[in-house]
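Worked example

This section walks through a single chain of length 327. The input is the sequence exactly as stored; nothing has been trimmed or padded.
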Amino acid sequence: MTVSRLTLAADDGLIAIPSSGTIAVYRPDAALDLSALPRDRTIVVHSFRPIHDLWKGRGWTVAAQDAPEATMSIVALPRSKAHARAMIAEACAKTDGVVVVDGQKTEGIDSLYKDVRKRVSVVATLTKAHGRLFAFTASDGFGDWADAPTKVEEFTTKPGVFSAEKLDQGSKALVAALPDKLPKQVADLGAGWGYLSQRILAIQGIETLDLVEAEERALDCARLNVTDPRARFHWEDATTHAPSEPYQMVVMNPPFHTGRSGDPDIGRGFIMAAARMLTPQGRLLMVANRHLPYEAVLSERFKVVDELGGTPGFKVLMASRPSRVKG
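Given that input, the structure is written out below as tokens.
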């Protein structure tokens, strides 16, 4: 954990930490230093389950999405500009005091800073470590930035969730490869806002489909998009999800990015989790970018691995009969 711009700004007197009242911190990443804040009056707001649980495990009070009324709110910049704007609008609506925004240049903090300055006077700013922190008094002039659902074809999405503005080509390739019949108990790991799940439920044979998704904002959309009573929704990290009974099939389009960096280990974690969740004769159907080297871990965890096709950019893989390997 590195010293944050927040700590530097507080130590230098650029911002004053309130002596009373609640402080809300929106979507801090795991490395953000919150030591300048009073733990007993601070609420971390994070809807991504692994980071939500991490802050909770560190002893902080954590909320999934419902930010509290606060005397100060701190917004940690997400990748999505629309999501950043929505968080600033929410912070302004719920804060009776100063709103602080902090982020890296690579995430667009300078552009957002300019946008905010067109609406309000900035009372403090600090540039450090390839990023910027700025603060302003909460204003009602950000109502047009408020969180609003968007549409992708007939599906409801939200700013900041994966594939919020258009259908993901990998998911489309996976849908094209779905068989004509599926077993009774199926899971969609990393279900997102429900496109793949909706298509799965249209196939003969399914009795239950578990949608497992770590981002609650996406799962909220999935609940609107997938209204079939056979669907069950789980706000959980797919890599640690533990079903009450093994699945006969897992279908997934696993993520492979951490921030802006590619990380194949995420997909490998999904594969290992799927093998653990399946019956001895269970099958995994997944899609991945063609350059991602998943075949090795699939061969370690399953007795049979086949490529079913795909597109020039994506491969669809079927693995069956998971090996009972610990870890």
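What to look for: The chain is about 25% helix and 30% strand.
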